[in-house]
Amino acid sequence: MLKELGIRNAIDCHTHSGGTDAYNYFVGNLPHTQAVSDLMFKARLAGVDKVVTFPFPGSTYYNTRTLVLEGRREPSGFQDFPYQTENRVLVSDCEQFKGDIFPFACIDPNTEVHKQIDFLRELLDSGKIYGLKFHTLACGCGAEKLITSGFAEFAQGNNLPILVHSGPDALSRPGNILEIGRQFPKLRLCVAHLAALDQEAIFEISRMGNIYIDCSPFLQLCAAVSEGNTSVKYPNMIDPLKPASSLLRYYQLMKGNLVWGTDEPWTTSIEADGVVRSKHAYSDEVRVIEDLFGISEQAVVAITTINTQNFLFG
Ligand SMILES: [Zn+2]
Q1: What is the extent of the structural domain holding 27?
Q2: Based on the structure, what is the number of domains in the chain?
Q3: Distances in Å between the alpha carbon of 187 and those of 19, 108, 155, 215, 256?
């Protein structure tokens, strides 16, 4: 447990809660659900003080059946704009943990942007959100659309950080996120999932003042490297047998730009066909931080507290 080692004020910068991901639920992927109270129970048990959380990637603004069966996005009629319900339910669930949880609202640059922004302004004015989250694959578009849709301008103007999914696919390539950072130098961005271990992008981020990178879920990234999985890029700096010293290598390169997150509940990820991408518990991800503390206390304080506070509040 972190607190027994003297690690206080740890923040987990990447978690999902407050509902169900309809897409994963219908497809049969596990997990697909997490309540805010379950997330907080896991975090407190492990000695993690605070968490950043956002809704699951998918929104039932879209017809889930059409999306699953035909890969097509059409409005379901359940919501007036994307993430209306998901964001509303999340912030209301988070109220009981106020002070210990930083809710981010999900955004979709494809449609009904004005309605989304009006709602975000309402949440912001009542102190209910601390940032925005964008998922490329869930929205079916690249991060560059945050520029043309006006979301980047809105976020920069309101001092709201944006956390963006990244991956090896064309829509999720970290280069798109770096382009936003260049055009909006005062906007704080976080590239999720260690930029899928894209060395070139990681090196570039290490030289930028407004772009952060999260290491979530680190044990799943280690497992992907161990299996030679194409979900991550090669060569990279991970030794799957030594997660803590691998994370230290990334810290030594990234210093002030690296932040720690778990992607809970996706510390475990089992696909519908039974393929296990990772099968860890929240406490396993926390143990990597405990092991890292044994090698470098400074790295732990930076990635669990100082850098995360800088990303959140500037
Ligand atoms: Zn995530």
Answers
A1: 2-313
A2: 1
A3: 28, 18, 7, 20, 16
